[in-house]
From TrEMBL:
Any one GO MF annotation of this record: ATP hydrolysis activity
Signal sequence extent: none
Keyword vocabulary terms for this entry: ATP-binding, Cell membrane, Membrane, Nucleotide-binding, Transmembrane, Transmembrane helix, Transport
GO annotation, biological process: peptide transport; transmembrane transport
Subcellular location(s) of the protein: Cell membrane; Membrane
Residues in ABC transporter domain copies: 301-549
Protein name per UniProt: Peptide/nickel transport system permease protein
Any one of the GO CC terms: plasma membrane
Similarity annotation: Belongs to the ABC transporter superfamily. Belongs to the binding-protein-dependent transport system permease family.
Length: 622
C-alpha cells in the first residue's frame, strides 16, 4: 500500500496511474458510457472525422469510433488480464516454492524456466492459435505462462534471501505452516519487484494482443478489439488517416503508461527497502549553518548547536554540543529514542531522506564539516571518522566473504596499493582486532560468524581508513557478557595504541564506566548533562542522570528492588515546553515549565536543570 502511495506521490507515477485507471474504468463501463452500440452502422456518415455526434469520428460503416474503442478495450484488457493472471499465479507459485523448498523442486523450476525463456514466444503463440483458431484467451494465457519464467526467477531469488532471515527461521521454530510462512513472511517481502514486473509485462501483453488483432489472428470482426481497430484503420490509412489516432493512440499510451508505472514502482519500492535507520546510500542531507558558540580547537571533533529536523519540521535532535579529544572516549548515553544515533548520523550527514541538519559548528581535525560537499564528506566518512553500525551482522553484506568486504574497504582508502599490499593490510586489520586465523576468517561469509566475530570484523572494517574518530553505536548490545568485555578491551586497546578518539553510543552505564572519559547524557533530543565519567557516577547533577544511574542493573544491590524510571521518553513532536524531563521528575516545580538553559560548572561539566542534584536519592517520580 505504501508503494502505491509513493507512486501516486511522484508526478509521472500519478499521471500513469490516472491514465490507466481512466482507461480501465471507461472500458469496464462501456455499456453505460459509450454513446452508441459498437456495431450500430450509419452509412450516411462513413469515415467522418470528429463531430459533435461522433467525438472520435466514424469508420467505413459509419460506426462510432469512441464506442468501438471503449468496447474493444474491454475485450483487449480482459485478455491482457488473463495473461497477467497466468503470469502472476505461475511465476509467484513456482518462484516462492522453488526458493523456499530448494532441492529437486528448485532445480526442476529453474530448468523449466530456462526452457520457457529459450523458446520463441511468437512461434509458440502461432502454434496455439493454429490449435485453437481465433482463441485469443488461449494465446494470451500461453504468453503469460511463458513470461512467468522471468518472474519465477526474481521471486525465487528474493525468497532465497528472505528464507535465511532470522524472522523466517523464528516463524519456522514457532511451528507455523509452510503456507502461512510463505503468505505472511515471504510473499510480502517480494511484492515490490513483483508489482513492478507485472506493470511492465502488462504493457508488453497489450502490444502482443494488438499485434494478434492486427494480423487477424485474434478477436474476429465485427466484434471490436484494439488490435482489430488498428487493422481496420490501417486499411483506410490513405482515405482517413485520423482513424489510426484513437485506436493506435490508446494502445500506445496505455502500453507506455504500464512501462513507466513499472519503472516508477521499482524506484519507489527500492526507496522503501533502503529505509533503514542509518544507510550509507542516503547521502544528500541539507545542511544549514546558524550562529553559535565557537568550536574547541583542541578537540578532534567539536560540535556546537547541532539540530536535526525532519522534512515536516519535527525536531529529532535539538541544539546538541560536545567535544571529543584525541585518545579519549566519550559516551553518549540515554534511553532508547533520545536521539543518540541521530546525533552521530547528523555528524556524518547520513540521515533519513528529507532530514535537515542545522548547526553552528561541526569541526573535525580542524576541518569545517558543515562547508564540505558530498564528495568531501564521503572522504571524511571511513577515512577520518569511522562508524560501526548498531547491528554488525546486518551491516556486513551476506553475499560477500569477510575478505571481499575488507579488501573493498582497504582499496577504497589505499588507491595505489598492490594486491599483495591490500591483502597484507586486511590480514593486519584482522590481527589488530584479535581474530585468530585471518586467512580462514577472510574466506567466511557473515552468517558463518558469531556475534563477537562479526563485531570484530565490523571494527576491522571501520579501522581500514585509519580514522581519527571511531563511532560505535551500541557496540556491545546483543553480545554475551564475556564477549562484551573483550570488545570493550579491544576498543580501549585500539584507542590507546592509535590515539584515535572514541564515541560510544550506549544505554549501558557499564560501557561508560569501563571505557569512557566523558559522559554526555541525552534526553528527548537534548543534552541534559555533560561531565567526566568519574563525576557522573559520584555526583550526577541532572535528576534524569541520577534516575538513569539508579535504574542501572550493573549497580543493583542483591536483595533490594531495582528502581525503575517510570513513563517513557516523549516522542519527537510531543516534547513538553521547558524541561522535557519534568513530567517524569520527582523534583519538578512550576519553574521547570520555562526555558531551561545549560548551566556550566567550571572544571566540572554542565547540566540543564533548575533543581540540580547533589547525589543521594533518585530523581524519578514514583
Ligand atoms: N527515519 C526516521 N524517520 C523519522 N523519525 C526517526 C527516524 N529514525 C529515528 N527516528 C526518531 O528519532 C528519534 C531519535 O532516534 P535515535 O535512533 O537517534 O534514538 P536513540 O537514542 O539512538 O535510540 P536507540 O538506542 O533505540 O537507537 C526517535 O524518536 C526515533 O523514533
Amino acid at each position: 500500500m505504501n508503494a502505491w502511495r509513493a507512486v501516486a506521490g511522484r508526478p509521472l507515477g500519478a499521471i500513469c496511474l490516472a491514465w490507466l485507471g481512466l482507461v480501465v474504468l471507461a472500458c469496464a463501463g462501456a455499456d453505460l458510457i459509450a454513446p452508441h452500440h459498437p456495431q450500430e452502422q450509419d452509412l450516411s456518415s462513413v469515415y467522418s472525422g470528429p463531430t459533435w455526434a461522433h467525438w472520435l469520428g466514424t469508420d467505413q460503416l459509419g460506426r462510432d469510433i469512441l464506442s468501438r474503442v471503449l468496447h474493444g478495450g474491454r475485450v483487449s484488457l480482459l485478455v491482457v488480464g488473463q495473461a497477467l493472471a497466468a503470469y502472476l499465479v505461475l511465476g509467484c507459485a513456482a518462484g516462492v516454492l522453488a526458493g523456499y523448498r530448494r532441492g529437486l523442486l528448485d532445480r526442476v523450476v529453474l530448468r523449466l524456466g530456462d526452457l520457457a525463456l529459450s523458446m520463441p514466444a511468437v512461434v509458440i503463440l502461432l502454434v496455439v492459435l493454429a490449435i485453437f483458431p481465433h482463441d485469443e484467451s488461449a494465446a494470451m494465457i500461453t504468453l503469460g505462462a511463458l513470461s512467468a519464467a522471468g518472474l519465477a526467477r526474481v521471486v525465487r531469488a528474493s525468497t532465497v534471501a528472505v528464507r535465511e532471515e532470522p524472522f523466517v527461521a523464528a516463524a519456522r521454530v514457532a511451528g507455523l505452516s509452510t503456507f502461512r510462512i510463505l503468505g505472511r513472511h515471504v510473499l510480502p517481502s517480494v511484492i515490490g519487484p513483483v508489482i513492478s514486473l507485472v506493470a511492465l509485462v502488462a504493457g508488453s501483453a497489450l502490444l502482443v494482443e494488438a499485434s494478434l488483432g492486427f494480423l487477424g489472428l485474434g478477436v474476429q470482426p465485427p466484434e471490436p478489439s484494439w488490435g482489430g481497430l488498428i487493422a481496420e484503420a490501417s486499411q483506410a490509412i490513405y482515405r482517413q488517416p485520423w482513424l489510426l489516432v484513437p485506436s493506435g493512440g490508446v494502445v500506445a499510451l496505455t502500453a507506455v503508461a504500464c512501462a513507466v508505472l513499472g519503472d516508477v514502482l521499482r524506484d519507489a519500492t527500492d526507496d522503501r527497502t533502503s529505509r533503514e535507520p542509518l544507510s550509507w546510500r542516503r547521502m544528500r542531507t541539507q545542511v544549514t549553518r546558524r550562529p553559535g558558540e565557537p568550536p574547541d580547537e583542541a578537540a578532534v571533533l567539536s560540535v556546537r548547536g547541532l539540530s536535526v529536523r525532519l522534512a515536516d519540521g519535527t525536531a529529532l535532535v535539538d541544539d546538541v554540543a560536545f567535544d571529543v579529544h584525541p585518545g579519549t572516549a566519550l559516551g553518549l548515553v540515554g534511553e532508547s529514542g533520545c536521539g543518540k544515533t541521530m546525533t552521530v548520523s547528523a555528524v556524518l550527514r547520513l540521515l533519513p531522506p528529507g532530514a535537515v541538519v542545522e548547526a553552528a559548528e561541526v569541526r573535525f581535525a580542524g576541518q569545517d564539516l558543515l562547508s564540505l560537499d558530498e564528495r568531501g564528506m564521503s572522504r571524511v566518512r571511513g577515512g577520518g571518522i569511522g562508524y560501526i553500525a548498531q547491528d554488525p551482522v546486518a551491516s556486513l553484506d551476506p553475499l560477500f566473504t569477510v575478505g571481499d568486504q575488507l579488501t573493498e574497504a582497504v582499496r577504497h582508502h589505499n588507491r595505489g596499493a598492490t594486491r599483495a599490499e591490500v591483502r597484507r593490510r586486511v590480514v593486519d586489520l584482522l590481527e589488530a582486532v584479535h581474530l585468530p586465523d585471518p586467512p580462514g576468517v577472510m574466506a567466511e561469509y557473515p552468517h558463518q560468524l558469531s556475534g563477537g566475530m562479526a563485531q570484530r570484523v565490523a571494527i576491522a572494517r571501520a579501522l581500514a581508513g585509519e580514522p581519527r574518530v571511531l563511532i560505535a553505536d551500541e557496540p556491545t548490545t546483543a553480545l554475551d557478557v564475556t564477549v562484551q568485555a573483550e570488545i570493550l578491551d579491544l576498543l580501549r586497546e585500539l584507542r590507546d595504541r592509535t590515539g584515535m578518539a572514541l564515541i560510544l553510543v550506549t544505554h549501558d552505564w557499564g560501557v561508560v564506566a569501563d571505557t569512557c572519559d566523558t559522559a554526555v547524557v541525552m534526553y528527548a533530543g537534548q543534552v541534559v548533562e555533560q561531565t567526566s565519567v568519574q563525576r557522573v557516577f559520584e555526583a550526577p547533577r541532572h535528576p534524569y542522570t541520577e534516575a538513569l544511574l539508579a535504574a542501572d542493573p550493573n549497580a543493583a544491590v542483591p536483595g533490594t528492588r531495582l528502581p525503575v524510571l517510570p513513563g517513557s521518553v516523549p516522542a519527537p513532536g510531543h516534547w513538553p515546553d521547558g524541561c522535557r524531563f519534568a513530567p517524569r521528575c520527582a523534583f519538578a516545580t512550576a519553574e521547570c515549565a520555562g526555558p531551561v538553559a545549560m548551566t556550566a560548572e567550571p572544571m566540572r561539566g554542565s547540566y540543564r536543570c533548575v533543581h540540580p542534584r547533589h547525589g543521594t536519592t533518585t530523581g524519578a517520580r514514583r
